Amino acid sequence: MIPILPTYATQLGASSFEVGLVMAVYALMNFIFSPLWGTMSDRYGRRPIIAFTVGITAMAFLLLANAHSLALLFAARMLAGIGSANIAASQAYITDVTPPEGRAKALGLIGAAFGMGFIFGPPVGGFIKEQYGMDAVGYSAMGLSLLNLILILILLPESLKEKDPNNTIEFKPVTSTIKALGNERFRDLFITTFIYIMAFSMMQITVALLWEQHYGLNEAHIGYMFAFIGLSSAIVQGGLVGWLSRTFGEPKLMVIGSVLCGLGLLTIPFVPPAYFIPLAFVPMILLAFANGCMMPSISSLLSRGATNKEQGQVLGMNQSFGSLARIAGPTAGGFLYGLHYTGPYIVGALLMVGALLFVLAYQRAGRGRVPQ
């Protein structure tokens, strides 16, 4: 969906800013529902929440298959955002079955799974859209979601040994976010997540337009580029995160990731068209390593600082900060791209300079030590 949606939205008459809003509304639903699904998984178990939300995702793709207007496209992305907010429950599942010292590697496998999806999803989606239209893309994605649901029901056992029936479920995302900023155990990591994902999502929403409008790539070619991103991410997060974590430690990995992300973002729009292949792959590799350094490290530190009964809640709150960034990032990215095509990438690199300074201050204060 990611490389297809910007171009499809423009075909429905969306401006660059409205393209950003299409992506932002998805993130808005993530922001609202991530803590809810995470907290509910602490109370009722991971398996039922994951299954229910995957069912919601299937319905979202059914609506997308019939979204022939910008309004319906917005509605479909809202529903998809509600369903995909289950990542906190998935991360909590991983922490349930993994010892603390192995969580960075295990959580990196979630990123590797996303990377594998990026290898196959974008080129398949681009091919289906070019050959059969957007309707077929929606129905194909719905079929995959239903297959996913069947596999969950058949193969996925419950991981939470002790459910907490007294766990309070609050559906107050704004209040909870403000309250989370007062929690010194997790505040700095939440803010780091926000800065990094905002910078990254500014690229993610605009790069398909950049490649199409300034480098002449069609939807199939854009799909292949996203597949390369997925392959790089899968290699880094599936094979290297564990070694990197043992070698450098999570706090240092966040420093490395901030530098690599800033360099990767800054170089994307300045690749000479005559040398697009192979030079365009360099920033993609930098971003893949950055993602492997940043998100598993942050999630691991959060999970190790949280008690067993608040894993889903804390990881869900981190996803909420990420979702807020995915609201701000695409909205700002679409606006900046409308001003000049290099805007999202230059501003994104500057954000990562700020993230680097913040992470360094976080380390100097001693908060980079793993909580006991």
Main sheet characteristics = none
The low-pLDDT segments are 368-372
Q: State the order of secondary-structure elements, H for helix, E for strand.
A: HHHHHHHHHHHHHHH
What is the radius of gyration?
Answer: 19 Å
The proportion of strand residues reads under 5%
Helices and strands, with pairings:
Elements: H1 5-11, H2 16-44, H3 46-65, H4 70-84, H5 87-96, H6 103-132, H7 134-155, H8 173-180, H9 187-215, H10 219-248, H11 250-267, H12 276-279, H13 281-305, H14 311-339, H15 343-364
Question: Overview of this structure, please?
Answer:
- With 372 residues, this protein is mainly alpha-helical.
- The chain has one domain: Growth Hormone, Chain: A, CATH 1.20.1250.20.
- It is 80% helix and 0% strand.
- The chain is built from 15 helices and no strands.
- Helix 2 packs parallel to helix 4 and helix 6 packs antiparallel against helix 7.
- The longest helix is centred in the N-terminal third of the chain and has 30 residues.
- The termini are far apart.
Structural key phrases:
globular, mainly alpha
